[in-house]
Sequence to fold (246 residues):
Amino acid sequence: MTHRPDSSSLLHLRRYQKMTTIVPGLMPKKPQQIKSYCNSCVAETNHKILHLHNASGTYEIVDYGEFEWSTKYYLLKCAGCDAVSMREDNWDELHEQESTKYLPARIFRKKPEWIGTQEFSLVCPNDVLPLLHETYVALQSNCVHSTAMCIRAIIENLMTSTVGDKGSFSKNLGAFEAAGYISAKQRPIIEGVLEVGHATIHRQHRPKREQLVMLIDILETLLQLLYVHPEQLKDLRKTTPKRARP
Fold:
């Protein structure tokens, strides 16, 4: 959507609009492609312009004057992987700024491939999988509170599904450590992750996005230690030659 002035500051607003559409076959030779973000390639890549729709116009604010706005709607195809996406470029003279939106939304962090494997789904607790998917959706949508709360809920579920519910986070974490799922050095790290979740829920804390990335890193490491590496190690042992005994 194009940015608009604050309606509380307007006495009258008159908007004039013109639109042009460029269709395949009628498109000017340049630009035939643009640089845009590709979720599949996870990078800025060359994209072929399949369709381009231009919308522009003016609006007048009494006592302020007339201002221009424009929006470009692109249907794009990645030149590297052929993935198709949409992009919207907005410009507003009043606010003197440009903005870009992507559909599907630009991926901030991709889920690890092992999350979608059958092997992981078979060993991971049933309640964890939907929470894990929601965590990445929340992170992608910049819902920082939801992301922190989901991470906290996942770790709680991991503890109770392995050692049972001991009545408190501290006791659950102690039993989790005592059972050998984490080491003494890893315990304060997990405590720090849980504390962010506690503060988000109970103390209106808003963690920064880069801090959430660190929490995701820790969560993914914990999940790999519990459910991914043990399964991978089974296959590794099968293919590793045994030492010859004298």
Observations:
- The CA atoms of residues 145 and 204 lie 9 Å apart.
- The chain has six helices and six strands.
